Amino acid sequence: MRIACVHQGYELYGSDRSFAESVAALRAVFPSADIEVVLPRSGPIVQILEAHASRIVFEPLWVLRRQAIARLATVEMARLPVAVFRAWRRLKACDLVYVNTSIVADYALAARLLPYKAVLHIHEIPEGAMRRVLVGLMRWSHADLIFNSRATRAAFGDPKAARAYVVYNGVAGPAAVEPMTYDGKRPLRVLLLGRINRIKGQEVLLEAIASMPAELQARVEVRLVGGAFESTERERALAELVETMGLAGRVGVLPFIPDPSEHYRWADIVTVPSRRPESLGRVAIEAMAYGRPPLVSAIGGLVEVVSDGETGWHVPPGDAVALGAKLQEIILAPEAWRGFVAAGRARYEAIFSEPVAAAAITAIAAEKLKTTIARPGRAPAARAAETRP
Fold first, then answer.
1. DSSP 117
2. InterPro entries of this UniProt entry (predicted)?
3. pLDDT tier at 70, thresholds 50, 70, 90
């Protein structure tokens, strides 16, 4: 059996980790399969994929990124036919091709020719012109679709010519929650972990802290952890903003690291103050796994992750004043949210843990493979070999 797993990234942010977990789940269920992983280039993700992939190949992918749209629509357009042909050839050679995220355009286009072999796993909520393009690609592909939240599915709409599923991302977490130590007698440790971009809301958190009375600002410590995608300018600008706002003594700007567990252990709460819709919110899930209540924007899939007033808190997106007010409540009344730790961990284990998602993903893959293997023209011996446990 041949399975190809295609991913547009190479780092270890949310969609990268979700992809690696899907590959691991496929390997666990199909231990003898030939699993080829396709990436655009080498990077930190390779280290965790090596244990599960038969091989990892690096090929140019035609990836629809907002910051590259002008180049893709002009000089890169000549490369698209070659990319689609390469994708079609891999689809033809494999029994199943699992494509992570909707922005891998060459595979979405090629899938139309062999849709019974393709599964697209969608992890983004696009807006504006990009939404129209990606929805069009999804419908064109006729591939089966996995959405990582109900919010993501609603953004794309129901496909007419394919099966669609909602499967929450499975997230690896610690064996048990980390003890909560915050009692109001020391500064509240607040973590924001994520890529530095227009969506994640680092500036909103800084404005929220700046809006608080000076005596409460002194009772907060913040870590902003992450980097910008191939842009040092955004990273420098964020560090400069911290200085300009006079928050250098309260806020640290730290680089992305592949394993963020030390930051979760340091934190008391985790903020996800996203300005625009998150398709799900992996950081909020990881926070609950570690026993760190998440404070999130009430937007997109984040409202499906965090139960407001039970496992964490919701605030309006982009509202620095509301975020600051909620932080003040958290600082002044730690006893009011002590129960969030256990409730969040229980929600994580029941809905968002790795085994729950892995079972769903592999069930979809197994059903898809039945369709492929049963098609006319395949040799009976091959069909028997591929369905043997």
1. G
2. Glyco_trans_1
3. low
For residues 270 and 313, the answer to whether their CB atoms sit within 8 Å is: no
Tokens of 279: 């398709």
CA distance 32 to 3: 11
Helical H runs in the chain? 14-29, 45-49, 69-72, 80-93, 105-111, 128-141, 150-156, 202-210, 214-217, 232-244, 261-266, 282-289, 302-305, 320-332, 340-347, 354-373, 380-387
What pLDDT shows up at residue 376?
A: 60
Percent over 70 (pLDDT), the chain: 95
Q: Which phi-psi region, left, alpha or beta, contains residue 58 (left: φ > 0; alpha: ψ -120 to 50)?
A: beta
pLDDT in tens, 233-253: 888 999 999 999 999 989 999
- Structural domains in the chain, CATH included, are 2-170+354-387 (3.40.50.2000), 188-350 (3.40.50.2000)
Q: What are 220's strand-pairing partners?
A: 188
**Integer Cα distance of 96 and 186 in angstroms:** 53
Between 70-79, 238-247, 298-307, the lowest mean confidence (pLDDT) is in: 70-79
Amino acid at the residue 177: V
Categorize the per-residue pLDDT at 121 as very low, low, confident or very high, splitting at 50, 70 and 90.
very high
pLDDT of residue 351: 97
231 band by pLDDT with thresholds 50, 70 and 90: confident
Cα–Cα dist 79/366, whole Å: 34
Tell which residue, 184, 145, 33, 178, has the closest CA to residue 95: 33
Q: How far is CA 12 from CA 5, 41, 208, 325, in A?
A: 16, 13, 28, 33
Please check whether residue 267 is in contact with residue 294, taking contact to mean a CB–CB distance below 8 angstroms: no
Strands 55-58 and 96-100: unpaired
Residues with Cβ < 8 Å from 348, sequence gap 6 or more?
A: 171, 173, 285, 288, 289
Integer Cα distance of 197 and 203 in angstroms: 10
Which structure tokens are listed for 95? 């029994």
